[in-house]
Amino acid sequence: MDFTKVSKELVKLWACLNVDEKNRYKELANKQKNLKVIAKINDTSIPKKSFQYIFKTLKRCSTSINIELSEIKKNIFEKPKLLKLSPFILIGEVKENNWMCCVQNEIKALNICRLQEAVVFFQKMVDEEIPLKMLCKSINISKKYLGEKNYCFLRNLDTSYEPSAEKYTITDERIVKNGFKVVFVFNDDPENPDINITDVALHISTYGTEEFKELLELMQLEKENGLYFYRPLKVVNYLRSETARHCKTIGLPKTKKEIYELLNYWFKNENLSSNNKCIHYKQVFTSVHIIDENSKTFKC
Hints:
Layout: H1 3-16, H2 19-43, H3 51-57, H4 69-78, H5 80-85, E1 88-95, E2 98-103, E3 106-111, H6 112-127, E4 132-141, H7 143-146, H8 148-155, E5 159-160, E6 167-170, H9 173-176, E7 180-185, E8 194-201, H10 209-221, H11 233-250, H12 256-268, H13 270-273, E9 285-290
């Protein structure tokens, strides 16, 4: 018997049934349909999202990234122009304060808090002027205490004849911005003026002649340009604590733009990026995966 005849016979049998019998069969059919739908949902695996979807829809509140590293590699090499324009690409936020990024064809974990601290600390080291307080009594430093070499070096620094011709003040920023105001006072012997420290750092305790001598020796040892290399240890520690206070006050970066600004500053300053440490000596970047060993140009 073919299917057409079977269908006709079934229609005749269905027509002979009363309403209650028909409803019973309808209920059984509906139950069977529901079971099939549930089984289909359970058997269907959730497909992995594409790199493009993750990159476009990933939000700051994300907690996981369902993406293969091979996909990241593929997409990076498909867009070589993007790498030329920037040495880094933010991939997405893994959890609060932690991002994944690509740096010179290497996948790295980035701690935003440490990045912010490192950048702010570097900026302070480069340009921060330590506030001064005037001493009730100036500190007199002898030529013997400084030593001939330090004394001659000090005499050759930039000066200004203010407020009078009998005195001149050291104006070299390495002295001024490190919390010292030093005045030479000419008495009877013009070749051996008195050296007086009239002002010292306001917020650094027990800051005086030892730190001044340390600074002079540091200025002669270092050959680099920039204030960053000429900081006494007590000034470094002070700026470190000021960095922590400042970062706590302003809070973490809230937008991608703010993070990119920090990263741009980081990679433009070799002395900053080569160190890869925050003020607590912890790594800013942590290597996760090397996309291509031959093209690796950045090391943590």
